[in-house]
Amino acid sequence: MKMKYRIEYEKSCVKYLKKLDKNTQIRIINAINQLPFGDIKRLQGSTEDYRLRVGQYRVIFSRYEEELLVKIIQISPRGQIYK
């Protein structure tokens, strides 16, 4: 059974998404809507933070199982996200 997570975005993520071209926006939003499935890994040294890979972009998010909530923290190109 597929559980539906509620998705919340940080303001900075929404702002960054609006700067991207339409195709990239659609790819990233579709990948986020598929959570908790996709190319996901837990970040090292972190208890709740994960990364989702969407082409050259990375989406950092926290997952709260008890609330069925996914909070999108950061969206950036691969080379910049881990700095």
Automatic annotation (TrEMBL):
TM regions (residue ranges): none
SUPFAM superfamilies: RelE-like
Signal peptide: none
InterPro entries: RelE/ParE_toxin_dom_sf (IPR035093), TA_system_RelE_toxin (IPR052747)
Highest taxon, organism lineage: Bacteria
PANTHER family xrefs: PTHR38813, TOXIN RELE1-RELATED
Name assigned to this protein: Addiction module antitoxin
Native source organism of the sequence: Syntrophobotulus glycolicus (strain DSM 8271 / FlGlyR)
